[in-house]
């Protein structure tokens, strides 16, 4: 944070970014000399997430699959919600990924929280660890590991 406050020129780039995140970063950094803020794969260009009309999950049983992902996502995130003091509304908002984004994004380094939690969250579904479900020929289960880092103050 000191570096940002110092007035040094700075630039940001994201591989994936929600428009709301890009807007917030721009507001925080307003008045600073910023060389560039670039986001490839922004909210508007990644459509409506996994269940948008341009994805292969938009099919006859797509709404059923979405509801199943949301139900399982809520169950998987219960422990995290309890630890972080989330309200029921916040848990509901995160059930399909941060901001309800419902993305299918993973990198070799990590799986962002905008990705469907059923693909990365470790927890219990219907009281049991380990799960999978099938809707209309699609089988979903946890296939990615999400690295959780300890929260650090932004004073580097």
Sum up the structure in keywords.
two-stranded antiparallel ribbon, alpha+beta, two-stranded parallel ribbon, 2 domains, elongated, 156 residues, 4 helices, 15% strand
Low-confidence stretches: none
Strand order of the largest sheet: 1-2
Number of strands: 6
Q: Residue share in helices?
A: 25-40%
Shape: elongated
Major sheet summary line? 2 strands, parallel
How does the SSE layout of this entry go?
Layout: H1 2-5, E1 10-14, H2 19-28, E2 34-39, H3 62-84, H4 88-94, E3 124-125, E4 128-129, E5 132-135, E6 138-141
Parallel strand pairs: 1-2
Antiparallel strand pairs: 3-4, 5-6
Helix pairs in contact: 3-4
Report on the architecture of this protein.
The chain is an alpha+beta fold. The chain has two domains: 2-39, no CATH class; 49-141, no CATH class. Helices cover 28% and strands 15% of the residues. The mean pLDDT is 76.
In short:
The protein is α+β, with helices and mostly antiparallel strands and 156 residues long. It has a two-stranded parallel ribbon. A two-stranded antiparallel sheet has the order 3-4.
């Amino acid at each position: 944070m000191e570096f940002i406050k110092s007035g040094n020129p700075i630039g940001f780039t994201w591989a994936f970014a929600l428009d709301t995140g890009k807007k917030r970063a721009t507001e925080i950094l307003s008045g600073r000399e910023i060389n560039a803020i670039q986001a490839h794969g922004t909210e508007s260009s990644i459509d409506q997430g996994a269940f948008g009309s341009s994805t292969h999950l938009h099919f006859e049983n797509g709404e059923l699959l979405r509801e199943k992902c949301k139900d399982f996502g809520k169950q998987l995130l219960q422990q995290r919600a309890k630890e972080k003091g989330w309200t029921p509304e916040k848990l509901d908002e995160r059930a399909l990924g941060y901001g309800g984004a419902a993305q299918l994004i993973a990198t070799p380094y990590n799986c962002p929280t905008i990705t469907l939690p059923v693909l990365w969250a470790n927890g219990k579904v219907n009281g049991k660890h380990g799960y999978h479900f099938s809707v209309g020929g699609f089988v979903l289960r946890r296939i990615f590991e999400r690295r959780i880092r300890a929260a650090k103050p932004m004073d580097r």
